[in-house]
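WARN retry 2 of 3 for item q-0093 after timeout on previous attempt; input resubmitted unchanged.
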Amino acid sequence: MAAQKLTQLKERITSLGSLAIAFSSGVDSTFLLKAAHEALGEHALAITAKSSSFPKRELEESISFCKEENIRQIIFTSRELDVI
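OK item q-0093 returned
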């Protein structure tokens, strides 16, 4: 049953043509990013926020994972805690 669900997920992802994943290096986003990369190759993109609320260790894990898997990653600086 799990293999069938994974196949269905990859088929759905493939039908999109390209996909950007908000990637935190947590279990859920890692699974989704890996499936997207397997389905779309270079048309899958990881987007990760660098901020004071995102632990440095997790940012480093996200960078390491993307390098190991050869996944394109965009890291942007978020200042969600700044008061305007």
